[in-house]
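Data availability (excerpt). All sequences and predicted token strings are deposited with the supplementary files. A representative entry, FAD-dependent oxidoreductase domain-containing protein 1, is shown inline so that the format can be inspected without opening the archive.
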Amino acid sequence: MADRYDVVIVGGGVMGCAVAYFLANDPGFGGTVAVVERDPTYQRASSALSASSIRQQFSTPANIALSQFGLSFIRNATEHLSVDGDPVDLGLREPGYLYLATGAGADILRRNNAIQRSCGADVALLSPEELTARFPWLSAEGIALGSLGLSGEGWFDGYSLMQAFRRKAKALGVTMIAGEVAGIDTADGKVTAVRLADGQRLSCGVAVNAAGPQARRVATMAGVDLPVSARKRCVFVFDCREELPGCPLVIDPSGVWFRPEGKQFICGAPPPADRDPDTDNLTVEHDLFEEMMWPALAERVPAFEAIKVTNAWAGFYEYNEIDQNAVIGPHPELRNLLFCNGFSGHGLQQAPGAGRGLAELIATGAYRSLNLSAFAYDRLVENRPLLETNVI
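Structure token line:
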């Protein structure tokens, strides 16, 4: 193994592997790339524990563009990520997202819809009567408006996407290193090396922080503050005796969401603020389902009054505490330290676009095909939050 690389990427989840793939696949780059991952089993990785959904219903054009590229990439995954001719099946399904709003939130949906449609998203606003006509199993009690993605939204196998990026990057010559990052050396306004716990020192021309829930810890090693914390999100699997034809991913005004998963359903919700700390604990909190999620589910879908939880898991959101949006691009002082962090729950769908953008920035010095400057670190220190109203 070499002790110097042109690019060292800290974190081998979907973000790190996406950046590595796009760099290695760029004919104009030609440099050496290493990805350092502390847990190659990925047992606690966000990429393995995500609900892996994709949508275009954001309120900011930059997020919409990222996910639109992600959708195109996922639809054509075999073309991009096949190794030795093997097909890449990511199990993409596109039944849509359905956001529901009370009277207090209806104007937000209308404003968002105008932005989404101006960006080419296929999204329709539905009255309560139109909602129940289209989804007879749904109760529109208390609902003033719904926003439904008619195409280009759904869910997929996020773990398989991460593994496909990783496998293809390796085939293109990227070095995968299993190790814990213990320090980052800097000098004269630059990162000079990434140090591992086993004593290895990887000199580099560029360092990329793609450490997911560990992003803040890694940034601190370089003397940089990054307001990204690890927040736990619990997902519950449940059976329902009745079928829900055409069920999309539904986001209730309460914040509870649900969608089909095979013949079952999965659901989740952000916990109350006083139960949402920065944590490394992935113990499932079953009382959240009993006390918060089930009542909201039963109110929205009468068939959910009689359901049975069959499984549950918890995973991490890498949560940007400032504006719940990604931080992508260089640090303003350590210019060769690049961030790919803080996606706050929509990272898997945006990994292809973020990976391509950072690879272009590294290889050419600029964003070429997708301008990601809205996600720059500078906005955090200049108090210019990129506010997103559609956060779940």
